[in-house]
Design brief:
This protein is mainly β. Among the domains are: 240-325, Immunoglobulins (Immunoglobulin-like), CATH 2.60.40; 329-436, Immunoglobulin-like (Sandwich), CATH 2.60.40.10. Helix content is 4%, strand content 47%. The protein is built from 2 helices and 39 strands. The strands form 10 sheets. Strands 2, 3, 14, 15, 17 and 19 form a 6-stranded mixed beta sheet that branches. Strands 1-38-35-32-33 form a 5-stranded mixed beta sheet, covered by helices on one side. Strands 12, 13, 16, 20 and 21 form a 5-stranded mixed beta sheet that branches. Residues 1-36 form the signal peptide. Residues 38-48 have a biased composition (Low complexity). InterPro entries: Carb-bd-like_fold.
Length: 458
């Protein structure tokens, strides 16, 4: 990928909290037929989405040919045949990637630096023998590193859920700790649940009635120790309410689908839903006032604040509340032309903006005039890299003056500011060498035919 420089002819030309419950870990016990989802620990509201977006960004970040070093080790545990997932993070806990491990030995190829590795037992959440997630720190240099890890049985919570005086089959139980990690499991048809593999610490236990008819305050469990199993009966005795929230920005109604979370000011319990058509409808809520934790939408930044007018009453519907995004992120605008035919704007070029860390900030596709605007939850920062590459239905082919193969280029060192538009000007997309083209007469820097008259602007 070659360097990209703005063309000399300038012209004017754009976690957090989302679905925390969707991504949270399901951990459980030998209660009959207890249900669980993917048993990998996930952060609390605002962090689950960031983690998920980090995974996508890590896989989309530009790759390099930097040297890597092998990091290997044994996973030591009393139980044999257990499958694990290992995740690795930067020294400031920025997510990089993950993979499954079988056979008790892991092997990674990492660039020199300092990393945190996290090992997660993949047995079902309802297994009270499940190991707690274990983190290790590793420094990588020029030589291979061996770093073994020892897994220990986690804490476990068991019990039965009752709602309105009856067993609450299918109730969801979520345990959240001070480290902003949450773990969940679904009770069986007799209301029995078990949540295993928990790290040591204190937990708030939130419970959700499957029928969304009853609700209760959270249960606080202090000082859970590794290997400890604590039985905790749960009773939901308060009639739940519902809340409809109109979602807006300062420009008007939010049209895109978006996950938002309502947090009870009375209990700290949270509910996440997928909003559609500018409306978020929450059911099964505890009475009282609420705040919203919302991701960025369009060019607006993530926001956490009170839901205007929200006051849920037991057994009642609140249909007159609203939440408004008010703070815009940075935008990046520009245009793309054909490097070999500077008067030809390029349509269907993919434009990506990367942070200095390599994380993807946002992307856009050029229109028929070659114009693009990158929007998103982009905050003030230096050293942003703007990359252009063929998009459309058949990359690397694009229709410029001729139908040719195109390469990629990048513009480093772009600085952006929250709430402001950064114009990068006109960027030139290079054609691949003539030797790699199907149409060698008209494509590439060494095309043999005379240059054609530029096509008329659209």
């Amino acid at each position: 990928m070659g360097p990209l420089h703005p063309h000399r002819r300038q012209r004017p030309l754009l976690a957090a909290l989302v679905a925390a419950l969707t991504g949270a870990i399901l951990l459980g016990a030998p209660a009959p037929a207890a249900l669980a989802a993917d048993p990998a620990p996930t952060l609390q509201p605002g962090r689950a989405a960031a983690e998920r977006e980090g995974r996508v960004a890590a896989r989309q970040a530009p790759t390099t040919a930097e040297r890597t070093t092998k990091v290997r080790g044994s996973i030591k545990a009393a139980d044999k045949g257990v499958k694990y997932r290992v995740r690795w993070f930067t020294k400031d806990w920025t997510y990089i990637d993950e993979r499954k491990v079988t056979g008790g030995i892991y092997s990674l190829s990492l660039r020199p630096g300092t990393y945190y590795l996290q090992f997660v037992d993949l047995r079902p959440a309802y297994n009270v023998a499940k190991y707690a997630p274990t983190d290790i720190k590793v420094k990588v240099g020029n030589r291979s590193v061996q770093k073994n890890v020892r897994m220990k049985r986690g804490a476990a919570i068991t019990g039965t859920v009752r709602a309105g005086g009856k067993v609450a089959g299918g109730a969801e139980v979520v345990a959240a700790n001070a480290a902003e990690q949450s773990y969940r499991v679904t009770a069986n048809k007799r209301g029995q649940f078990a949540l295993g593999g928990l790290p040591a610490g204190s937990y708030s236990l939130f419970t959700y009635d499957r029928k969304k008819q009853y609700v209760g305050r959270s249960t606080y469990l202090a000082g859970m120790r590794l290997g400890q199993v604590r039985n905790t009966p749960i009773t939901l005795g308060t009639r739940a309410g519902r809340l409809l929230v109109d979602l807006r920005t300062t420009d008007g109604t939010v049209k895109e689908k978006v996950f938002v979370t309502a947090v009870s000011k009375a209990t700290g319990q949270f509910w996440t839903v997928k909003a559609r058509g500018g409306e978020a409808i929450f059911a099964g809520l505890f009475p009282g006032k609420y705040r919203m934790v919302a991701p960025g939408v369009g060019s607006y930044l993530p926001q956490d604040g009170a839901i205007k007018g929200a006051r849920v009453k037991s057994g009642k519907d609140d249909l007159a509340s609203s939440f408004t995004w008010t703070k815009r992120g940075a935008t990046i605008t520009g245009a793309v032309i054909d490097e070999e035919h500077p008067d030809a704007p390029m349509e269907d070029v993919q434009v990506l903006a990367y942070a200095a860390s390599g994380g993807l900030l946002g992307s856009a596709t050029t229109d028929a005039d070659g114009l693009f605007t990158i929007t998103g939850a982009i905050t003030t920062q230096p050293d942003v890299t703007v990359k252009i590459q063929p998009g459309g239905n058949n990359p690397p082919y694009l229709q410029g003056t001729f139908y040719c193969k195109y390469g990629t280029a990048s513009l480093p060192g772009v600085s952006v500011r929250t709430g402001e538009d950064t114009v990068v000007g006109i960027l030139a997309l290079p054609q691949l060498p003539t030797a790699q083209q199907d149409n060698r007469s008209n494509c590439g820097p060494d095309a043999t035919a005379p240059r054609a008259v530029p096509r008329s602007p659209r």
